[in-house]
Sequence to fold (441 residues):
Amino acid sequence: MIKTINGFSKLTKFEKIKWLAGHFCSDEAAAERDLASWQHPNPAVQNVIDGFAENTVANFALPFSIAPNFIINGKTYAVPMVIEESSVVAAASSAAKFWQERGGFHAKVLGTVKLGQVHFYWPGNPDKLRAIFPELKVQLLDSCGDLTANMQQRGGGIIDIELIDFEFVEPEYYQLRASFETCDSMGANFINSVLERLAEKLEEFFTLYPGLSDAERDAEVVMSILSNYTPNCLVRAWVECPIDSFADLARKQGMVAAALAHRFARAVRIAQIDPYRATTHNKGIYNGIDAVVLATGNDFRAIEACGHTYAGRDGQYRSLSSCSVQNGIFRFELEIPLALGTVGGLTSLHPLAKLSLEILGNPSANELMCITAAVGLAQNFGAVRSLITTGIQQGHMKMHLTNILNHLSASPEEAASAQHFFQNQTVSFSAVRGFLAEIRS
Ligand code: MEV
Fold:
């Protein structure tokens, strides 16, 4: 059977489903039914969702969960989280509750600068380029007036344009590095439109500038695109408390509070020293961050890419969080770049992203940075707390029990018995299968 097709994108959704099921699925009718059923009941809403991507045949469901009791800068939030991993939301909620009684989370935006680049090659003398750059910069800024007017009215726009010289690494290679303030929007389209305009102006400038050689008139723009590395779009979230506040938690583990606090700090320190541990440690942070980023219609790939580059900014990949225990005070902190938006993009188009923002009190981008960083810190706190005490499997497998029961097609009665039985038993796939076999026989 020929499985390639020309003009797939031109088919109607129904035709796409039919073709797909007929060519790639063992049970054609079941696949057709499945795909046809994963549609929003309101065609207008489905139309909007279909518009987010191309060749859309169905919606892909993920849990939309809430982590309540987050106190951040004195304000209470119920935080929407979209994630498929068992125990992430439970861990975030539990950490939120723990810190609720210890002053909550604190967060501060340290910067909101976004960046974009025009990469170009120019075959002239670098000193000459540096000398004419001030004139070029004025013309570049002037050329974008119509594109930046709206953003300027909202308090943003182009902050600066720098000439970056890579000549010493790659002959003739330079870049314009432009910095932007995009207020409450993530600003990708704004930045990319401005960059493309800057690129046009740059090429025109060299063709018209007096006294250049023929070769120097020929600047070659290779590409113009925002940079997802925004180290100055940064937020710090932290929690702190006297170490005695860990007394109850420590007692349950047969420890004293100070030992628990120090072990926690050591676990974080290990993630600063060793990239293998740092990667997993930071993955735990992004369990929380990505879930909020997705729920609010932001771009989690951009957020992750940026954070991991930031984690390696001194040449070694390290933990994004840090911990100190000094003078009887435990302090746990996360500093993370988060280029988020609360207007534009999917934020108002995706019905649940819009609702997420409403649940969060329609925050500004800065407030959303604070909330998201606090959730990342909470997630990291929950993971490290488990790792240094019970280990994560106990909680994780308890939560995963539901998935195993669903996988084994347990009835509601069987599931209830299993939940009861496994309260004090180690959960594993085979143990659950054995338990079900026994009660079924
Ligand atoms: C699992 O998704 C995340 C953890 O591995 C994070 C960590 O080890 O810190 C528990």
Remarks:
- Residues 85, 280-281, 283-284, 287, 383-384, 387, 392 surround (R)-mevalonate (CB under 6 Å).
- Strands lie at 64-72, 75-82, 106-109, 114-121, 157-165, 173-181, 220-227, 234-242, 321-326, 329-337.
- The chain has four domains: 8-50, 83-111+234-390, 114-227, 396-440.
